[in-house]
Amino acid sequence: MVILNVVMTLVMIVLVGLILKLPDYITKSWLEQTKNRNAHDIQVESYFKQLGGEQQQEVLSKWTEFLTDLDKTTQKYNGSSSSGQRNFKKLIHDTVVYGSDRTVNLLSNYSHSVYEGADSNGNKMLVYVAYIITSLKSDFSGYKIEPLTLLKLMIKDYDDLEEIYSKYAEEIEQEIK
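The structure corresponding to this sequence follows.
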């Protein structure tokens, strides 16, 4: 009987010790996973920054031209010419290569919207472009800008169309969630 009590006491001490060490083990395990995930993210980010700083700047610049010089951009990416299609495909390719998940998601939704052709006056496309530009800027520099701020900066009659742009911005936000 005494031996049974001693064995039970030892088992209880071991169990209590394990239970007390369990939170430390879980915390260390979680911390290690977080460190590994962060190290991987930093490694990927560093790779892309090292690989394509100039290319990233060029991609951002090309998208920004959609807002700053719409006439030139329309000619450059005209879908009825083979060079325009080729230029646009290259821009999409480069955006996919250098953009984040969010940027690629925006680009996908933008392309789908263009394909559907439901936006006859092009206002939603402008809002998409503003979102793509701000997402790329965030990807490449870490600076965050509101897409509607870009539109306000570039479009003279923004105040007249502010409600429409805001509505489209809300729709786009819902699409990318």
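The chain is about 85% helix and 0% strand.
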